[in-house]
Amino acid sequence: MQTYPVFVLLAGKPCLVVGGGQVAARKVQDLLTAGARVTVVSPALTPALAALAGRGEIRHLQGDFQEEQVAGMALVIGATDDMAVNARVSAAAQARGIWVNIVDQPELCTFIVPAQVRRGDLTLAISTGGASPALARRLREELEGRFGPEYGPYLALMQTIRTRVLEARRGDPDNAVLFKRLVDSPLREALGRGDLTEVRRILQEILGLILEAAAIEEIVAGLS
């Protein structure tokens, strides 16, 4: 199956999940993480989904799926164990030009959700085009070991540095070289060890001619 990889911006967008079990709960959590406004259709919910509904974090339509429930949705996910219901969800969404994913039934999908590794704003996505979900899971596990939890704060630090540098000299042709020096430096390893003294030294060495010492100290202070 040939696919075109994209990362979809769903903040504030209405999304529908059909199903109230454990798989649906995982899909709902991913959508909430992306900032989507989630509606769940199901006769019953897992305790976790029921808690989200009770707090008003999702909307629960109790009962069986109805085709008109997909209207106005940016994205639809079918996560039931009833193949006939899943087929109806897919048909209803596709008839309205809405992106739809049916769990474990790629032939009913217009998009596939990849296996993911998340470290803060860093997202690594793996897809086998539906050929082998088991291999996608295996690759995800390997990447989880390769990209540890330090990548979350490391990426946040790089974002802070980039913002400060661009404020100081936006459009400077040497910025690309500077950012590469930061990425090639042992900054991530020092941050992973919690060695803020080394982090400070690296930042002073690379950024000292661009940012004032007080600005660098403020960046380091934000890490503690």
Key features?
Rossmann fold; 2 domains; 7 strands; elongated
Question: Summed up, what is this model?
Answer:
By secondary structure, the chain is an alpha/beta fold. It contains 9 helices and 7 strands.
Describe the structure.
Helix 8 runs antiparallel to helix 9. This protein has nine helices and seven strands. Helices cover 46% and strands 15% of the residues. The chain has two domains: 100 residues, 3-Layer(aba) Sandwich (Rossmann fold), CATH 3.40.50; 71 residues, no CATH class. The strands form two sheets. Strands 3-2-1-4-5 form a five-stranded parallel sheet, with helices on both faces. Strand 6 and strand 7 form a beta hairpin. By secondary structure, it is of the alpha/beta class. It is elongated and about 65 Å long.
Question: Helices, strands, pairings?
Answer:
Layout: E1 14-18, H1 22-33, E2 37-42, H2 47-54, E3 59-62, E4 75-78, H3 83-95, E5 99-102, E6 115-119, E7 122-126, H4 133-146, H5 151-169, H6 175-184, H7 187-193, H8 196-207, H9 213-221
Parallel strand pairs: 1-2, 1-4, 2-3, 4-5
Antiparallel strand pairs: 6-7
Helix pairs in contact: 8-9
